[in-house]
């Protein structure tokens, strides 16, 4: 157990929290790091996003796909330095994601580190988030997807008034202690809910090799480049963009949760009133206020348009389609 984990387990919960800004530990997420002289070239030929653009203090959502265009991992990519790229993703898929990249890296002057303990993840959200970062860390990035960096670590603006921080352990502990007096402690469910409301997908073990990037709306989030050239799975992804019709985009949905009812798992099937077979799958889900849950789910657009999609096979728990902060282009 490292110093950061020890701090979270023994001290963080005992601090005096006060304020509206939310402070969340991102222990369920980690960094897969690729480093070496060929890093940018190697990843440019593997990932759906434009890796070269990361050199401009930028981050990007993206996916690593099979040759069939199915996403093995979904992540936020950013640079830690010259020839060093980090992919932020759920820790649960890190080993699988690393193994998938390792199949192609053998002839490149680059290596993969999926056991990183150099940086700790902290999420910060709310009206005072930027001020807290500027006071206790560094000048925060001003544009969404922009990255700022200092000796303490890296800060990414992932949405308006929301930041993802990757800090060295000592810096993370110091920042948490100082920020806590002006924040409320948020759970990982709270952070997950923010991602859902922002329409930002993630993959878990149950959904690896299930969706093409457009099913996860990555083309609407800047996570797919159609101009950078070839990468693994690119032919399938490009064919969908230019010659296909996206029948299963990702929607944000809401549903009731009975007392002590568990959230739907990633990959759980969804059903329509007039069909026996599944019409969609859960991507990620989180608890919301008022005995409600929210999720991102890939669903056939025809079922959504018909207005009859259910969380269970018995078709007793109807889903509500909620707004996303971007448009879904499903007529491609």
Report on this structure.
- The chain is of the alpha+beta class and 332 residues long.
- It has 2 domains: 3-197, Probable tRNA modification gtpase trme, domain 1 (Gyrase A, domain 2); 245-332, Elongation Factor Tu (Ef-tu), domain 3, CATH 2.40.30.
- Helices cover 21% and strands 30% of the residues.
- The protein contains 8 helices and 17 strands.
- The protein has helices at residues 3-10, 39-44, 94-102, 129-136, 169-180, 188-197, 234-243, 301-306; strands at residues 21-25, 29-35, 60-65, 71-81, 84-90, 111-113, 120-125, 147-150, 153-159, 162-167, 183-186, 250-256, 269-272, 280-288, 292-299, 309-310, 320-322.
- It has a 6-stranded mixed sheet with strand order 8-9-10-7-1-11.
- It starts with a helix and ends in a 10-residue tail after the last strand.
- The mean pLDDT is 94.
Just name the CATH architecture of the largest domain: 2-Layer Sandwich
> What is the string of SSEs from the N terminus onward?
HEEHEEEHEEHEEEHEHHEEEEHEE
State the domain count: 2
Mean pLDDT: 94
Number of strands: 17
Proportion of helical residues: 10-25%
* Straight-line distance between termini: 48 Å
Major β-sheet strand ordering = 8-9-10-7-1-11
Task: Provide the CATH topology of the largest domain.
Answer: Gyrase A, domain 2
CATH class assignment of the largest domain: Alpha Beta
Structural class by secondary-structure content: alpha+beta
Work out the helix count.
8
**What summary fits the major beta sheet?**
6 strands, mixed
Please tell me what the overall shape is: globular
Low-confidence stretches: none
Task: Determine the strand fraction and express it as a percent band.
Answer: 25-35%
Question: What is Rg?
Answer: 20 Å
The CATH superfamily of the largest domain turns out to be Probable tRNA modification gtpase trme, domain 1
